[in-house]
């Protein structure tokens, strides 16, 4: 009976994990980053680490001296406290004891460092202003879905400026809302009578600028995607003023 209950619990947890993976995979990002983020950090460190031969030799010599010296000291201490009643114990201090001791100390220090770094990362993530619901490598299908939802909402509100802007932050789908709010910075291109002529969705923090794109949503037109580097030309074509001559930052309407 107990085994059946355990199997049932594991089956429910497995199904729940699969549902989360398919419908809200972003929930796995924080624990995955905390568990395996050190690998990419270590690779970046190794890439910029350029040790010299002399430093490697000095480090190896110092480490060997420490281990040999500790082994000799522990052997002397072991032989001095070993009494006649402990005849069943080995006569000499063994090398594997010394190496196991250093290994246990190294693992203990590594565990302490991991706890400190994990605590630091959790606190940093809780205080960070970076996006938590949106991955920088966001799927293009999700981007198109956000744009299509926004266009349907704009058409339903007859491109009313105030209602569309309010609806952008009040989507029914929580996942798409997080993607829209955290993933994009909208540029509202005003027309006449409080209406909008177009909406430009620009990524806030693109991972690769060369492959990032902006989406232009306009009435009676299909959504058009343009490279992010062409944002200035897109703004000019829609008649959006720039802050200053030569500035690439558009006048974002409130």
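^ Assign residues to that structure.
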């Amino acid at each position: 009976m107990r085994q059946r209950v355990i199997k049932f619990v594991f089956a429910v947890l497995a199904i729940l994990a699969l549902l989360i993976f398919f419908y809200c995979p972003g929930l796995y990002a924080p624990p995955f980053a905390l568990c395996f983020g050190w690998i990419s950090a270590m690779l970046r460190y190794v890439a910029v680490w350029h040790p010299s031969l002399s430093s490697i030799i000095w480090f190896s010599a110092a480490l060997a001296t420490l281990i040999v010296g500790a082994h000799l000291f522990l052997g002397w201490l072991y032989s001095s406290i070993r009494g006649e009643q402990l005849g069943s114990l080995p006569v000499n201090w063994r090398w594997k004891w010394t190496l196991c001791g250093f290994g246990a100390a190294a693992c203990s220090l590594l565990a302490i460092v991991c706890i400190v770094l994990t605590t630091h990362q959790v606190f940093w993530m809780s205080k960070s202003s970076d996006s938590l619901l949106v991955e920088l490598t966001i799927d293009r299908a999700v981007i198109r879905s956000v744009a299509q939802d926004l266009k349907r909402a704009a058409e339903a509100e007859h491109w009313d400026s105030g209602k569309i802007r309010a609806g952008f932050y009040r989507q029914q789908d929580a996942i798409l809302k997080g993607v829209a709010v955290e993933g994009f910075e909208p540029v509202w291109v005003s027309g006449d009578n409080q209406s909008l002529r177009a909406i430009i969705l620009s990524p806030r923090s693109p991972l690769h600028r060369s492959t990032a794109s902006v989406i232009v949503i306009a009435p009676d037109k299909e959504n058009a995607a343009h490279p992010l580097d062409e944002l200035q030309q897109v703004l000019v074509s829609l008649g959006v003023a720039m802050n200053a001559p030569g500035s690439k930052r558009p006048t974002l309407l409130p």
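The two ends are 63 Å apart (CA to CA).
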